[in-house]
Amino acid sequence: xxxxxxxxxxxxxxxxxxxxxxxxxxxxxxxxxxxxxxxxxxxxxxxxxxxxxxxxxxxxxxxxxxxxxxxxxxxxxxxxxxxxxxxxxxxxxxxxxxxxxxxxxxxxxxxxxxxxxxxxxxxxxxxxxxxxxxxxxxxxxxxxxxxxxxxxxxxxxxxxxxxxxxxxxxxxxxxxxxxxxxxxxxxxxxxxxxxxxxxxxxxxxxxxxxxxxxxxxxxxxxxxxxxxxxxxxxxxxxx
Length: 239
Prior knowledge:
By secondary structure, the chain is α/β, with parallel strands linked by helices. 52% of the residues lie in helices and 11% in strands. The chain has nine helices and five strands; from the N terminus they run αβαβββαβαααααα. It has a five-stranded mixed beta sheet, covered by helices on one side. Strand 2 (47-53) and strand 3 form a beta hairpin. Helix 1 (3-24) runs antiparallel to helix 4 (105-138) and helix 8 packs across helix 9. The longest helix has 34 residues, at 105-138.
């Protein structure tokens, strides 16, 4: 799947998500008043119209708070409680207010899609975009694949020109190290002889050979291929 198609779909989904959030914003015409003010003004007949927005839990309409002034737009929020809503409706109807109720069915469906379906689709599209980018960048060892491969064994990504050139030959001149390795190799070659003399075995050694470490750790001891190779090289340089 081309990157342009996946990225274009992702941008479209994000734009759709942003537009849905704008649609879900509740209307706020005129001035905001408290619920107590609405009930009090309804008691004296100042509330002319009241439209209940069921999905937004909001009441909008016209109210004439000041005498000798035309009605103005207002809005207020009410609690999502059947008992509180019924009491408010009874108060407004008793005062002669023109009351209407809007169930906002379409807005309810948009809210469900925006809160549950769209986020999942956006995440799936984002993962698809990362997958496509990793596939395209993986061939040359660049692109986003370098970030996706973070934490994995480094030598698997090294090119032949980038591999270390240091060998055992470069360290052969360290006489003390060679002597210590020779003693270690002598013990590994014949540990029984050292045991008869009461010599204690070495407690550990830090080697820069991966297969040597794996051989010693795996319990193969002096028979590990890395140990045999190290022993031959160390003995050769001590002669």
